Amino acid sequence: MAKFCPLLFMIFLVASIPWARGFKLDKHMAKKLKTQKKETVTNLQFYFHDIVSGKNRTAIRVAQSADTEKSPTLFGALIMADDPLTEGPDPKSKLVGRAQGLYGSAGQNELCLIMAMNYAFTSGAYNGSSISILGKNSAMSPVRELPVVGGTGVFRMARGYAIARTHWFDITTGDAIVGYNLTVVH
């Protein structure tokens, strides 16, 4: 038994070397994490132009149930959008990006949209970056809050919220201009 003790001690020593190296690596990684950039909070404001009527539509119904037309909320309709985002509410104001994605009417008793949209910026400091929003939009409420669930470029790993307010809505056509204020942590 006494002959095996030095052998066991040697095996323990050899086996602990990779662990000790890993420990040093962990210290190095901890130091690196400490030097990483702090999170930034960015506030954005822009206008979303959703045109569902006429020749130059920016949102098109791509699917619906057989009962959608009978529903006052168009329950079951699915719309694909590529809407302009502008600095101001005037459709001719400076284009800052595009809202691309889809939304569907998910409420049987209220006009409630489930939105999965990517807000891709095409000018300024955020050119090439995007913010993703996924959530419920109670379209007839004066103020709605939607979650920011991600982003790309400057907004990689983004989280936050968007406040949406209808600026203009045409009840006969369904066309709308919606103001968005976003608070994004990235």
TrEMBL record:
Classification lineage: Eukaryota, Viridiplantae, Streptophyta, Embryophyta, Tracheophyta
The answer, when asked if Secreted is one of the entry's keywords, is yes
Entry similarity comment: Belongs to the plant dirigent protein family.
Q: What is its main location?
A: secreted
Specify the signal sequence span: 1-22
Q: Name one GO biological process term.
A: phenylpropanoid biosynthetic process
Cellular compartment(s): Secreted, Extracellular space, Apoplast
Q: What does this protein do?
A: Dirigent proteins impart stereoselectivity on the phenoxy radical-coupling reaction, yielding optically active lignans from two molecules of coniferyl alcohol in the biosynthesis of lignans, flavonolignans, and alkaloids and thus plays a central role in plant secondary metabolism.
Give start-end ranges for the coiled-coil region(s).
none
Q: Specify the domain of life of the species encoding this protein.
A: Eukaryota
Which Gene Ontology cellular component terms are annotated?
Answer: apoplast
Record keywords, A-Z = Apoplast, Secreted, Signal
- Subunit composition? Homodimer.
Q: What is this protein called?
A: Dirigent protein
